[in-house]
Amino acid sequence: MDKKENIKKILEKIQEAEYVLVGLGQYFDMQYFLSMQEGYREIIEKLQERHALWMEPYVDTCCRKQFSPKLEDEMTKGLQNLAEILEKKSYFVVSTSTNRTLREIPWKKLLMKKERYVNPCGEWSKLQCPDGCPEGLLPVTDNEEKILRDWYQNMKKGDFRIPDLGKCPNCGKELIFNNIYAEQYDEKGYLENWAEYHNWLQNTWNHRLVILEIGEGTRFPSIMKNPFERIAMFQQKAELYRIDEEQNPIAWLLALC
Ligand SMILES: [Zn+2]
């Protein structure tokens, strides 16, 4: 089936479906692109030496903007297309990517303003205490975003000190980003949305459900790859479609509208 036909068929299935479950995978981190940039690899090595890999999602954001603003813009546009197509559906988006831009796509909220997006790997929108004190789980503010922007500029000039993002209100340790690269990842950062996702998923049972898995790799199969397969296998009215790396997920999304 050629690409146009494949998109047409999937759009028809979405039209007919009552529920749509979307998985956005690690492709959206754009590591395939970033790891080709020498400047990027150098920064990541420095972070590793300083046990600060939790900074990686932030560095990824800066490097995508620096090295390929066009790619980042295309991805955003493509995901906005998807949000538009799903607008009238009951849907949920699960992501294994640590790209913060995915969170900022206008995924419409469910009734009662519940979120339709969950990313169990985190990114850099929240802070946590390195020891996991509940008081340390805080949103990143505008002020911290400014500190981070300055940090990135200084780092490009060779200053690799870790930015000061404030201290844990409970134990006083320096806060870090709440993501999978933290040595003790505080999973409380996403559990509320995860519970919301599972509530939503229960409602889809025995209804026409389309599952779209886009750009997933093999890094965390327990988050979406395996569960999606199980749902498609056991739920008669569920159909799973995969858009893998070879199909170029960004081009695929751009072709939706
Ligand atoms: Zn603490």
Describe this entry's structure for a reader.
It is globular and about 55 Å long. α3 runs antiparallel to α4 (56-67). The strands form 2 sheets. It has a 5-stranded parallel beta sheet with strand order 3-2-1-7-8, sandwiched between helices. 43% of the residues lie in helices and 15% in strands. The chain has helices spanning 3-16, 31-34, 38-49, 56-67, 69-86, 101-104, 142-156, 188-203, 225-234, 249-254; strands at residues 19-24, 90-95, 117-118, 122-128, 138-139, 176-179, 209-214, 238-243. α9 (225-234) links the parallel β7 and β8 (238-243). It has 10 helices and 8 strands. The chain starts with a helix and ends with a helix. It has 257 residues and is an alpha/beta fold. The site of zinc ion has 8 residues, from loops.
Total number of strands: 8
Count the DSSP helices: 10
H/E order of the elements?
HEHHHHEHEEEHEHEHEH
Distance between the termini: 19 Å
Overall mean pLDDT: 95
Radius of gyration: 19 Å
Estimated share of beta-strand residues = 15-25%
Helical content stands at 40-55%
Biggest β-sheet: strands ordered side by side in the sheet = 3-2-1-7-8
Give the biggest beta sheet.
5 strands, parallel
Shape: globular
* Helix/sheet category: alpha/beta
Bound molecules: zinc ion
